[in-house]
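During the no-cost extension, the postdoctoral fellow (Dr. R.K.) reprocessed legacy sequence entries with the updated structure-token encoder. One reprocessed record is reproduced below for audit purposes.
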Amino acid sequence: MKRLSAFILVLLFAFPAAQGAAGEETAHLRVIATSDLHGKFAPWDYALNKESLSGSAAQLSAAIAAYRTPDTLLVDAGDTIQDNFAEIFLGSGVHPMVQALNHLDYDVWVTGNHEYNFGMPALKKVIADMRPKTLAGNVYDADGQPIADGYVILDAGGIRVAVIGMVTPNIIRWDAANLAGCAVTDPLEETRRIIDAIRGQYDVLLGVFHMGIENEYGTPNSGVTDILNACPEFDVMVSSHEHTLIPSMEINGVLVVQNRYMAQTMSVIDLTLENSGDGWRVTDRQAESVFVGGFEPDPEMIEMLSAYDAFARADAESVIGTLEGGPLATGNEYAGIPAAWVRDTALADLINRAQMHYSGARVSAAPLTAADAAILPGAIRKCDIALMYKYTNTLYLVRMNGKQLKRFMEWSVSCFNTLRPGDTAVSVGPGFADYNYFMFEGVCYQVDPRMEPGSRIRDLSWPDGTPVKDTEEFTLAVNNYCASSQLLIPGIICDAEDMPVLLEKDVRGDIGGIRDLIRDYIVSVKGGVITPGCSENWHIVGIE
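Re-encoded structure tokens follow.
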């Protein structure tokens, strides 16, 4: 039973703790669910090297204390130890995120896909250090042994709660090398087997799955919708992996929740149960999303994690390479328009070359999200990569044809106001976001803002001068935001009957997002030394 603090006594009068004693007719149970914490143990963004109060384990501590009742169950759906530079703590000692979950007295932790990025020995150490019950019901090691149980039955004030935990089967796609010799089985088959085996042993059935709502890559049963359509016995399903805020929804009569990433939200689920004489039955389910950024960090946890924080800040300042021969980014030529929008730059080329290297794509598209950053010759610190690429995007690989590429390019350059006779400079229309303007590598082209939107891309060709044909197919590397919100949504860039095809999400997720790929490219591919090279494969025409 969890320790009760005086701070939350007032909540118990509004919502009593679980009571399942004999003779009681009604009981209440609360579940607090988190997921996708992604290394955010302290309120600090180590990639940007600055304070970040949008959410953290230290703030979760305060939020959980405000909502926890004596018999509240606390569960997490994985992706815990990776991102925010937290990988530096793997290999020795106890990871700070493990320390945090242990301190917060979690009941259950389920492995996420990113837990498999670092090899099975590293994951087994994390599991050994975790005090919460680890669940991963569809992963077996090289010896044929499950790396963790698939379920646990917990007692919450006399109410028997069965918790089943699974991870997306697509981990075998992303981390095949790390899972060599292991078996990743169908989560639906494993779930069905568990439910049939424990029938009559629980009052509440809770799923904590590191899986999104729908299937990925067409892999059957890789989304919780398939699971719940086949297993309506669940009362609640904690979905994760997609970082999409779902305060409350129903799938096949089952309550489903999902959280944002990096501890921005937690789900608070309240169940009402009635005693039917031969057991408890759930009669009502309510859920809400709580924004963790509204809570002050817990001083006790800040102190507990202070050594990790100091180490991570020093690591963010560590030098990873050198820029020689000139700046990567130069001053703007036109007021209010980044230089990279009107001519090719070394920084844009660096980002695109890194994306092409790790994806194997023939063409790459990259926005210059930190267009006003001063990237000058000298030492490059680890945290400087965030100046080169502002957002925590991941890299997607897409198959498309020449017609689709040209539509994508036309959509991007529609930001420019049409040049009229007498204009002396290009200008951009109001409200256009910098992350929607892309520089393309792997092809050569010209942008003519004298033409109306939709007719501005000229002379689109391959580097050898061969025109890019509408019907020829090739691969494109692009960030996840553009792919999922524009390029792969029918009717925004391409028509529904002529759409690009997603081939791979989170390319080289074992390394990390695009910022991590750029860092690894500088260190591992360029040997720590970069020079401002520029292919000058595209130009703005029609104005000097």
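The two ends are 73 Å apart (CA to CA). The chain is about 25% helix and 25% strand. The remaining legacy entries will be reprocessed before the final report is submitted.
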